[in-house]
Amino acid sequence: MNDVKKWLLFMMAISLLLVAPAIGKRHEAEWNNRTYEMIMPYDEVEAWLQEDEEQVWKQLKEAGLTTVSVEAETLDSLEKSGRVLLFRMGEWKQALALANEHVVTPARGIVVYPIDDTFPTVTRLQETFGDDIKAMQVNGKTYYMIEGNAKKIERVPLGYDETKISDLMTRGFMVVLRIPDARDMNEASARVLQQVNTLKNEHISKLLPTGEEVAGYPSDVEKWGKRWNEAGYALLSTEFYEAKGLTTLAKAMNVRVVRLHSLNLEQRKPDEAVDVAVRAVKERNIRALFIRPYTSSDEKQNIEKTMTVMKQIVQHMPNHYMLGNSEPFAPIERSYMATIGFIVGAAAFVFLAVRSLVSPIIAPLAAGGALVLGIAGTVLAIDFALKALALFVAIVTPIYAAKPSSVREGWRGTITAYGRAIAISFIGISWIVTMLYGNEYMAYVGEGFRGVKLVYVVPLVAMILLVLPSIIGQPLIPFFKKLWKQPITIGHVVLSMFILALLAYYVLRSGNTGTASAFELAARQKLEEWLYVRPRTKEFLLGFPAYLLALFVINKQKKLGAILLIVGTIGWLSIINTFTHLHIPLFISFIRTIYSLGLGFVIGIVLIYVYEWAWKKVIR
User: CA distances (Å), 77 to each of 85, 95, 249, 361, in order?
Assistant: First the structure.
């Protein structure tokens, strides 16, 4: 069996060499993409332009604004900007009565009166509503009546205001076209989507979907995506929100995606808004910040407060990030050699892990299953198979790392076992980041890695089952049989509820939606200021120190060592989880993990000295 292990280790070493260039290529694509932009919506800036338009645009540009987003005009937007008057049917009937005019009117609809010709309102209405629009003369003026649901009619996109767009480009701004919500479009609205193609130029290169359904949903999303891709557009994808059809659109555009974070300044304190923006760019591959300005004060204060925050974002952004026109990541593809490397390497890794943790009999079956999933995911392009293999490796790795086969007593044995766990973790991480590889993962298109919560729970439960015999002093099966026959008491119920509550809190604390105390948030902020990126507290304050202490005491006090191994598992599963967030830059995850391992090692050494003192003075 030792010969088999040597050959498997040799295969893994060769496999790591094969996947290394792919990992390096991903890091290169992330590192070379360091230009971010700040976007503001035109409709929220428009109110500021009444006083001194030239000065407002100049100040915004000086504050860091690079891009303005423009939506297709609707009757609602034209009314708000004072370019048309709208009469709902009840209002229209009252106006006719006051003017002593007798005109047959439908029960539902809207009447439009164009005020100026800066936007070709009448032409766009006729193109959009066709025979449903009727012109009529009242007191020598021409009005246009559209029958139907007034609220829906107001939201139907009529087209982009090319005069407005031209003015923005003349002022030196990039323009992002906001694509209409499919729910607001009618059959003739395809003309608006065709207009998107004609508007493409060096100043207009990105599209931002609006609403809950991307244009063309459900049947024509791919068609429009391919057309916009051919025109040279990239797609902006808003973090924490995905419209229906967005993944299909992104893939139709060859995953030419730029990640966007929407920052509503009214919902955050200024310092917090700056911090959120900087971390989004630095830690999550965000390259577009969509700034929603202050609106609660008078216009002068809103402008000043908004520009102050924007300037602070630019000032606090790390120097290696540049303000400008963001671009999608350069395309990366996994080579055939890297594919062979991770399939063979992961199968060998799984064999050794399962043989060490469970049974030599099951090990070949587990490795065979890993091999089948790897081939199905790559050769047959079954995405689910590849994600299942990644999840399996992500679950096995922290258990394999945390459960030492044997530990020599003393400092040398402790440090050697700690190094072994680090090596196993990074090997497993190498397979995962090579399996789930490509622009769709860097840009978080679709579901990304599935099973984050499982990675937090399953290794912990598995470790409990593995070390429980050492704690209870007997095999698991007789223990559980005996436990099953025990009468349930109130104490058992209370204890079970307490354990479940702890588990629920632990799971809820994980991921992006986790909660933290005010003190912990302040401590995290300080760590980030000092270290560029903060290490995870559950790793360097809990998991790794407990693990080091477990390695040191396990030969002296098996029960204490076993309990500490369970706590230590939290550190190893956490770093695996860090690298399964594939939209986080590799170098950020690496730096964060190195900090955790280093600080955890130092704190662990301190704990060991405290234990040795207690062992000599108290325990023994």
Answer: 11, 23, 26, 69
Q: By three-state DSSP, how is residue 474 classified?
A: coil
Q: Are 69 and 260 in contact (CB under 8 A)?
A: no
Beta sheet of 84-88, edge-to-edge order: 84-88, 109-114, 141-147, 133-138
- Residues 326-339: pLDDT tens digits? 999 999 999 999 99
What are the C-alpha distances in Å from 617 to residues 447, 612, 620?
Answer: 55, 8, 7
Q: Which of 177, 199, 216 is nearest to 73 (CA)?
A: 177
DSSP E strand stretches across 92-199: 109-114, 133-138, 141-147, 174-179
**Cα 538 to Cα 127, 277, 383, 569, 573, distances in angstroms:** 60, 24, 32, 11, 10
The tens digit of pLDDT for each residue in 516-537 reads 555 555 666 677 777 788 898 8
Radius of gyration for the alpha carbons in the chain, expressed in angstroms and rounded: 31
| Angle at 159 (CA atoms; ends 161, 95), nearest 5 degrees | 90
Each residue's pLDDT tens digit, 12-63: 999 999 999 999 999 999 999 999 999 999 999 988 988 788 999 999 999 9
Q: At which residue do the structure tokens 């049917």 appear?
A: 89
Q: What is the pLDDT of residue 224?
A: 95
- As separate numbers, helices (DSSP H) first and strands (DSSP E) second, the chain gives 26, 12
pLDDT digits (tens, 9 = 90+) for 144-193: 999 888 899 999 999 999 999 999 999 999 999 999 999 999 888 889 99
**CA 174, CA 204: separation in Å to the nearest integer?**
6
User: Do 568 and 543 contact (CB within 8 A), yes or no?
Assistant: yes
307, 294 in Cβ contact below 8 A? no
Structure tokens at 408: 């020599």
Q: What pLDDT was estimated at residue 489?
A: 65
CA distance 261 to 282: 12
Handedness of CA 310, 316, 321, 322 (dihedral sign): positive
pLDDT of 484 reads 64
CA-CA distance, 513 to 521, in Å (whole number)?
A: 14
234, 240, 246, 250 alpha-carbon torsion, rounded to 10°: 40
Token pair 């008491």 in the structure block, residue = 489
Question: Cβ distance 236 to 288 under 8 Å?
Answer: yes
Provide the residue type at 361 as one letter: I
Which string of DSSP letters, residue by residue, matches 431-449?
HHHHHS-SHHHHTT-TT-S
- For Cα atoms 475, 478, 480, give the angle at the middle one, nearest 5 degrees: 100
Tens digits of per-residue pLDDT, 292-311? 999 988 888 999 999 999 99
Return the pLDDT at 447. 80
